C-alpha cells in the first residue's frame, strides 16, 4: 500500500556545499549590538554549516533566543533569496499565527536596515510581497495552499517552519509535505542543474518535537541534526498561589491591581483565556487604576479596547521600590501572601508617577491594534498587556517583567467518535506554564505569579498538550492530500498520525460529497472542492449553488458560514443592571433605561437581519454580509447591528476571493461586474439557498424528539425553545443504553440561534446543524449536566429531506 518512492528520490545525504556567496548588510549600531546578545547569533556558524551539509535541520532554543528574527537573516546574508546567488529562491518562513507573521516581517525588515524592503509577509487577505521579496513570512495555511499549486515549491530555496512545538495541524502537515518536497527537489536538481535543492529548517521553542525526529517514514534521509541555542534567560521567580480560586478573573484583577501599586517598574503580561475575559478585565482595571488616589488628571491615555477611542485617565501612583515588596522577594517571594501588604497605603510611600497602558492582545483584534504592544511607551509608565495564548511563544513583547498566569486556556476539543466539538476552558500543560513564566525573564530577572497552587499544578497539569491534528475533523486534510494524488492518506508522513477511525470517517464524508470515488481516488468534484480555501462541506455548497441565479448569494452565504463570530452574542453586550432595584437613584434609572434601549436595539437589529427567514441562521449571516456591503459607514453599521467589524471585513474579503476563484474557473457563472451589493433574493432563491446548505450537511440532521417514531418521555414540557430535545440522525452517545437520560442522547438548539426565539409549538421538525457543541462539564456538584447544543444552520421541510435523500 505504501506510495512507491522512485529510486532516484532515495537520498542518503546531499554533498556538502561551500559558502561561496555572501550579501552585505548594513545594520544600525543598536540593532547590531542587540543581536550580539542573542544566543542564536552565537551559533550562527554551527547553524549555517548544518544547513549546508544537511537537507533538513532542526533548531531548538528558548523563546526570545533569536530564532525567528535571526535565522532568516543568516540565510539572507549567505545569499539565499538573492537573484544572482547559487540559491536564488526565496526564504519562506511559516508561522502558526497571522499576527506573528506580520510583526516578525516588520521586525526583520527593521533590523536589515536598507535591505528591509526585501522582507515581506503574506497572510490571508493581506500581503506585502513584491518582486524584491527575499524573505517571506507567512502563515502555515498560506504555504499549504501554495503547495497545492506548485508542488515543488520552486519559488523557494529554503523553508523555515517556525514554532513547530505548537504542533498545530497545519504545521504538522507542512512538516510531512515539505520533507517530501525536499526529497523531490534533490532528485530534480540531479536531473537538471537549473533546479536547486530545497532546504528545510524546523524551529521549536521546546523539545516537544523530538518524538518524531527519528521517524524514518517522515525523514527518509535519516534523523536531522538538532542544534541547540541555549537561551540566555534571566532567572524568573515563580510564585504559586496558596489556594486555587475558581474565579480566576477576580483573582487576576486583585493581583494586578495590587501588583501595580507595589511592584517596581516593569511591564505586566496577564494570560487569560479569551476576548470576553480580556475586555472585562481591561474595563475593571481601567476603572480601578484610574480612580483618583491623590493624582489628578493630566489626560494620559489608557487603551482598553480596540473598538473604543482611547479614554482619558489620571496619573496612577505606585509604591516606591523600597517598599515591603523587596523584602518579600528574599523571604517568601510573594507580595500578595503577606497579610500586612493588604494595608499598604500608596500615600504613605514616596510616590513615583506611573501611567498605565492597558493593551489587549487576542486573535480577533484588528492587526494594527495587536501591534500596539510593540510601540514604545513614554517614560514612567507601565504597560499591562492582557493576552491569550498568542503571547505564549510567538511574540516577544519588550519590557515584560511580571507575568500573571491564570493557568487556563480555551481549547477546542473534538470527540472523534461523535464529531461533537466543544470549547472548553481547561488547564494548560506544564510546558505552556513554563513558556508563560519565561516571558518575564527576557530583559532582566522577572517574576511569574501563578493564580493556582502547586498542588493543582502537580496533580492536574499534563506535560504537553495533544497535537491539534488529534483534536479536529480531518476531512479537509484528507481532501487536500487526495488532491495531491495521494490515494492512501494513511501513508502520509504525519508527525503524529490521526487515528484510523477519524481518517475513515473523513473519507466517508468525502465520498458522500462526491469528492472521492469508492476506490478512494479524488473525483472531478473533489478537484473543484479543493480549489476553494474552505472546508469540503462549504466548498460543496459552492459547486451546487449556481442554480436559480443564486451564485452571488451562495458565495455570500458560504463566506458568512466560514467566518465564525460575526454576531456579537447578547451576553456580551455588557448590559449591566442596577444593583439596588428598589432604591433607584437617578443614575440607576438612567442606566436601566439605557439597558432597556440597548436591549431593544439589539432585538431590532436581530429582527432586521433575520428578515429573509425566521428559521435559518445561514440566511441571517447572508443578510448581514450583504447589508454590510450596502452600508455607507461600515463601522457605524457594525455598531448598530451588533456585529464584529473584524469578522465582517474578513467575510467580505473572503467573498471577493471566492468570486475571483469562481470567475477564473467558471466564467459563465458570474458576471464580471458583480459585487455584494445585491438586491434582496426572491422567495425561490431563499428556498434554494436553504436547500444548498442542507445538501452539504444532510448527515447532520436532527429530528424533533416528540416527532420521532418512539418519542421519549420528558419529565416536564419544555417552555423555551432551547429546552426542546431533538434527536440527531446519528447518535451522539455511542454508549447508548435503554435507560439513558434524554440529556445524554438529545441535542438542543444553541441560544445564539435564531430558532431559540421561536415559540416551542412552532419549532421545525427537522433542523440541519453545522456542528455540535458540548458545554463545559459542570464542576459544581448538583449542577445540571451540560447539554449538547446544535449550531443550527437551517430548518428543512419533510419534502426537502425527501428530495435530499434522493440526491436531487
Ligand atoms: P525566538 O524566535 O527565538 O523566540 P525572536 O527572534 O522572536 O526569538 O526574538 C529575539 C529577540 O528580539 C527578543 O528577545 C526581543 O528582545 C527582540 N525582538 C523581537 N521582536 C521585537 C520587536 N518587535 N521589537 C523589539 N524587540 C524585538
Ligand atoms: Mg520565534
UniProtKB/TrEMBL annotation:
Q: GO CC annotations?
A: nucleolus; ribonucleoprotein complex
Task: Respond yes or no to whether keyword ATP-binding is given for this record.
Answer: yes
Sorted UniProt keywords: ATP-binding, Helicase, Hydrolase, Nucleotide-binding
Q: Where is the composition biased (Acidic residues)?
A: 324-348
Q: In the Enzyme Commission scheme, what number(s) does this protein have?
A: 3.6.4.13
Q: What GO molecular function annotation could you give as one example from this UniProt entry?
A: RNA binding
**Region entry Disordered, spans:** 324-352
- What sequence ranges are listed for the domain Helicase ATP-binding? 48-225
Gene Ontology biological-process annotations: maturation of SSU-rRNA from tricistronic rRNA transcript (SSU-rRNA, 5.8S rRNA, LSU-rRNA)
Which family is annotated? Belongs to the DEAD box helicase family. DEAH subfamily.
Q: What is this protein called?
A: RNA helicase
Source organism = Imshaugia aleurites
Chain's gene name? ECM16
Amino acid at each position: 500500500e505504501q506510495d512507491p518512492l522512485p529510486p532516484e528520490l532515495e537520498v542518503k545525504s546531499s554533498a556538502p556545499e561551500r559558502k561561496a556567496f555572501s550579501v552585505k548588510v548594513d545594520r544600525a549600531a543598536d540593532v547590531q549590538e542587540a543581536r550580539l546578545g542573542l544566543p542564536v547569533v552565537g551559533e550562527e556558524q554551527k547553524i549555517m554549516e548544518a544547513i549546508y551539509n544537511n537537507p533538513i535541520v532542526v533548531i531548538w532554543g528558548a523563546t526570545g533566543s533569536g530564532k525567528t528574527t535571526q535565522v532568516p537573516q543568516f540565510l539572507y546574508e549567505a545569499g539565499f533569496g538573492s537573484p544572482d546567488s547559487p540559491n536564488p529562491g526565496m526564504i519562506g518562513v511559516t508561522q502558526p499565527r497571522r499576527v506573528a507573521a506580520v510583526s516578525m516581517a516588520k521586525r526583520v525588515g527593521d533590523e536589515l536596515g536598507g535591505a528591509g524592503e526585501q522582507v515581506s509577509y503574506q497572510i490571508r487577505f493581506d500581503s506585502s510581497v513584491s518582486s524584491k521579496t527575499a524573505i517571506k513570512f507567512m502563515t502555515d495555511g498560506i504555504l499549504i495552499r501554495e503547495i497545492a499549486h506548485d508542488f515543488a515549491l520552486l519559488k523557494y530555496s529554503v523553508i523555515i517552519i517556525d514554532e513547530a512545538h505548537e504542533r498545530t495541524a497545519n504545521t504538522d502537515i507542512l512538516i510531512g509535505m515539505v520533507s517530501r518536497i525536499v526529497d523531490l527537489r534533490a532528485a530534480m536538481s540531479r536531473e537538471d542543474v537549473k533546479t536547486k535543492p530545497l532546504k528545510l529548517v524546523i524551529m521549536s521553542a521546546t523539545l516537544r518535537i523530538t518524538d518524531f525526529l527519528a521517524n524514518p517514514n517522515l525523514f527518509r534521509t535519516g534523523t536531522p541534526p538538532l542544534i541547540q541555542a541555549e537561551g540566555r534567560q534571566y532567572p524568573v521567580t515563580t510564585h504559586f498561589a496558596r489556594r486555587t480560586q475558581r474565579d480566576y478573573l477576580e483573582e487576576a484583577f486583585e493581583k494586578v491591581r495590587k501588583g501595580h501599586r507595589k511592584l517596581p517598574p516593569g511591564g505586566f503580561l496577564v494570560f487569560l483565556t479569551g476576548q470576553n475575559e480580556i475586555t472585562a478585565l481591561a474595563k475593571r482595571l481601567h476603572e480601578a487604576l484610574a480612580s483618583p488616589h491623590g493624582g489628578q488628571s493630566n489626560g494620559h491615555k489608557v487603551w482598553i479596547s480596540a473598538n473604543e477611542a482611547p479614554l482619558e485617565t489620571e496619573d496612577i501612583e505606585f509604591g516606591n521600590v523600597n517598599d515591603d515588596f523587596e523584602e518579600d522577594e528574599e523571604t517568601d517571594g510573594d507580595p500578595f501572601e503577606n497579610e500586612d501588604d493588604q494595608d499598604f497605603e500608596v500615600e504613605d510611600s514616596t510616590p513615583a508617577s506611573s501611567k498605565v497602558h492597558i493593551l489587549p492582545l487576542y486573535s480577533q483584534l484588528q492587526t494594527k491594534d495587536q501591534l500596539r504592544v510593540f510601540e514604545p511607551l513614554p517614560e514612567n509608565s507601565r504597560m499591562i498587556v492582557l493576552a491569550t495564548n498568542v503571547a505564549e511563544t510567538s511574540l516577544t513583547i519588550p519590557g515584560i517583567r511580571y507575568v500573571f498566569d491564570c493557568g487556563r486556556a480555551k481549547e477546542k476539543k473534538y470527540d472523534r467518535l461523535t464529531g461533537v466539538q466543544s470549547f472548553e476552558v481547561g488547564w494548560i500543560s506544564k510546558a505552556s506554564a513554563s513558556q508563560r513564566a519565561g516571558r518575564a525573564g527576557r530583559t532582566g530577572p522577572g517574576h511569574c505569579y501563578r493564580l493556582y497552587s502547586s498542588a493543582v499544578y502537580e496533580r492536574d497539569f499534563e506535560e504537553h498538550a495533544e497535537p491539534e491534528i488529534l483534536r479536529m475533523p480531518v476531512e479537509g486534510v484528507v481532501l487536500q492530500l487526495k488532491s495531491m494524488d495521494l490515494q492512501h492518506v494513511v501513508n502520509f508522513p504525519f508527525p503524529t498520525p490521526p487515528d484510523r477511525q477519524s481518517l475513515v470517517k473523513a473519507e466517508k464524508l468525502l465520498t458522500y460529497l462526491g469528492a472521492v470515488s469508492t476506490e478512494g481516488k479524488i473525483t472531478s468534484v473533489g478537484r473543484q472542492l479543493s480549489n476553494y480555501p474552505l472546508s469540503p462541506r462549504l466548498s460543496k455548497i459552492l459547486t451546487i449553488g449556481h442554480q436559480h441565479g443564486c451564485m452571488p448569494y451562495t458565495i455570500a452565504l458560504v463566506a458568512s458560514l466560514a467566518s465564525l463570530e460575526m454576531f456579537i452574542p447578547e451576553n456580551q453586550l455588557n448590559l449591566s443592571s442596577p444593583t439596588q432595584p428598589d432604591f433607584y437613584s437617578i443614575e440607576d434609572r438612567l442606566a436601566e433605561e439605557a439597558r432597556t434601549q440597548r436591549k431593544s436595539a439589539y432585538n431590532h437589529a436581530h429582527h432586521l437581519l433575520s428578515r429573509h427567514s425566521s428559521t435559518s441562521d445561514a440566511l441571517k449571516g447572508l443578510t448581514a454580509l450583504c447589508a454590510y456591503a450596502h452600508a455607507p459607514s461600515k463601522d457605524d453599521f457594525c455598531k448598530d447591528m451588533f456585529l464584529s467589524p473584524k469578522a465582517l471585513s474578513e467575510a467580505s474579503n473572503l467573498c471577493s476571493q471566492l468570486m475571483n476563484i469562481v470567475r477564473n474557473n467558471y466564467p459563465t457563472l458570474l458576471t464580471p461586474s458583480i459585487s455584494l451589493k445585491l438586491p434582496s433574493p426572491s422567495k425561490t432563491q431563499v428556498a434554494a439557498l436553504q436547500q444548498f446548505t442542507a445538501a452539504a450537511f444532510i448527515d447532520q440532521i436532527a429530528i424533533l424528539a416528540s416527532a420521532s417514531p418512539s418519542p421519549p418521555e420528558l419529565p416536564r414540557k419544555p417552555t423555551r425553545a432551547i429546552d426542546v430535545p431533538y434527536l440527531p440522525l446519528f447518535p451522539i452517545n455511542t454508549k447508548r443504553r435503554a435507560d439513558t437520560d434524554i440529556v445524554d442522547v438529545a441535542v438542543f438548539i444553541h441560544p445564539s440561534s435564531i430558532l431559540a426565539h421561536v415559540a416551542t409549538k412552532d419549532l421545525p421538525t427537522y433542523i440541519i446543524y453545522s456542528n455540535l457543541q458540548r458545554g463545559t462539564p459542570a464542576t459544581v456538584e448538583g449542577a445540571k449536566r451540560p447539554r449538547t447544543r446544535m449550531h443550527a444552520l437551517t430548518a428543512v421541510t419533510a419534502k426537502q429531506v425527501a428530495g435530499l435523500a434522493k440526491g436531487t
